[in-house]
Amino acid sequence: MKILFAGTPDFAVPSLQALLDVGAEIPGVFTQPDRPAGRGRHLKQSPVKIFARKHELPLFQPNSLEEEAETIVELDPQLIVVVAYGNLLPEKILEIPLKGCVNVHASLLPRWRGAAPIQRAILAGDQESGITLMQMDKGLDTGEILAQVSVPILERETSGTLHDKLALEGGRVLKDSLQRLITGEINPVAQNSDQATYAPKLTKEESELDWTQSALELNRRLRGFNPWPTARTADGSTPLKLWEGEVSEQESGTPPGTVIESSKNGILVQCGRGSLNITLLQRPGGQPLPTMDFLHGYPLQAGGRLGCKE
């Protein structure tokens, strides 16, 4: 069967590998154009482009899929697999393949439709996430469910670690479902839109910590914003990025944001309820450091107060 693939970031690579593993004929791989990245703003290739080139797969990088409708018709795919491509597929593209278009999505739909399902699940304190293989329609992650597998969210899970787990799981779900999808053995299940929640794209502005929140909520933010955009606060005029921490029930009676203790075991900060023990952090121009190493170069003392919204 001819299967077209559309995807862009690291998350999509295991699914493309899955198509190779089952011996699918891949007439084309569509990915986003090279874009400026990093301090030097040099053009950066997507992980899917790098993988496709390595495996000598036909590669397409259109500014708009709609512009490539004729090309896709000529490639004559019976199925299109979409994994984090970066744009919604136009309706006329969805109608081209005989078996339609399917999407590997990083949540248990209908929960967390949208661009940032992994991060939003952690920020919300969800106990599980997962992979949904979905038949695509013109809506935003609204199509019928073809397969679904849950993955527990561990106590210290970050968006980065959960991303990597779900990327691999996505490849497995696609691989396990593909033959049954082709032969029509899967019975699609409609989503219950009344249960839908939405996962908008993250912004840097969201990552500024509000110390009046509970330690539990703030720790979720550290985990949810790791690795990007990374939870942020400030010591006076010095911005700090907070990478890892632990919830403590200790209360000091001091205002939120106050440093209760500062030692090799962590920087304990009073929150609106409970306290947060910061164990990995970073200052401008530096690398993320464990507290003991960080304090050697930056003596953050007990009694100081980190940036706080009031």
The strand line-up of the biggest sheet is 5-2-1-6-7-8-9
Residue stretches low in confidence (pLDDT < 50, at least 5 long) are: none
Oligomeric state of the chains present here: single chain
The sequence of SSEs as H and E is: EHEEEHEHEHEHEEHHEEEEEEH
Instruction: Please identify the structural class as seen in this structure.
Output: alpha/beta
Estimated radius of gyration: 22 Å
Strands, total number: 15
Strand content: 15-25%
Distance between the termini: 60 Å
Helix content: 10-25%
Biggest sheet details:
7 strands, mixed
The domain count comes to 2
Report the principal-axis shape: elongated
Question: Which tags fit this structure?
Answer:
Rossmann fold, 25% helix, seven-stranded mixed sheet, 2 domains, alpha/beta, 25% strand, six-stranded antiparallel sheet, Methionyl-tRNA Fmet Formyltransferase, Chain A, domain 2, 310 residues
Quick structural overview:
The protein is α/β, with parallel strands linked by helices and 310 residues long. Helix content is 25%, strand content 25%.
General description of the model:
This protein is elongated. The strands form three sheets. A seven-stranded mixed sheet has the order 5-2-1-6-7-8-9. Strands 10, 11, 12, 13, 14 and 15 form a six-stranded antiparallel sheet that branches. The protein has a two-stranded antiparallel sheet with strand order 3-4. It has two domains: 3-195, Rossmann fold; 204-297, Methionyl-tRNA Fmet Formyltransferase, Chain A, domain 2 (Roll). With 310 residues, the protein is an alpha/beta fold. The model has no long low-confidence stretch (mean pLDDT 96). Strand 1, helix 1 and strand 2 (29-30) form a beta-alpha-beta unit. The longest helix is centred in the middle third of the chain and has 25 residues, at 159-183. It has eight helices and 15 strands.
